[in-house]
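Hi there, hope your week has been kind to you so far. Would you mind checking whether the tokens look sensible for this chain? I owe you a coffee for this, so here goes:
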Amino acid sequence: GRRFSALRDGLPSASEFSDRVKLFVLNPPRSELYQKINARSEAHFKAGLVEEVSLLLEKGLPAESSALGAHAYRRVVEYLQGKRTLESAIEKSKQDVRNYAKRQLTWFRRENVAKWLNGFGDDRLIFNEAYKEIEKLLSPTPLKLS
């Protein structure tokens, strides 16, 4: 019942290998990200999300279970319970995912070791940029002889 950020201070210190972990954050243009989120949300509904949730409920999964707490699933349950229209469920699902994406970016901004890549992961330029960074990390460092 408490936020993870409130628990952070009580966490153990970082392990010895944590400095070897490299974090890459994709940061595409917000308008393009939201267009993709909206299209993907609509595709989920067209692919049978309502039918899937109906079947899960028919098989006895409680409507308030955490399994049905994910963004679109929660909204479909509300639709099936008559609490919202199908159109409203779709739109609210889109908004939920957009808000989640924004929170993720906010979270990663706190990570001072993050390497930000301004685009999508399927963009060849972004892939190449990440690949070059990884190559640099893996290349042996020359020995300094005194």
Notes: The longest strand covers residues 24-26. The chain has a mean pLDDT of 91. The beta strands are 24-26, 115-117. DSSP finds six helices and two strands in the chain.
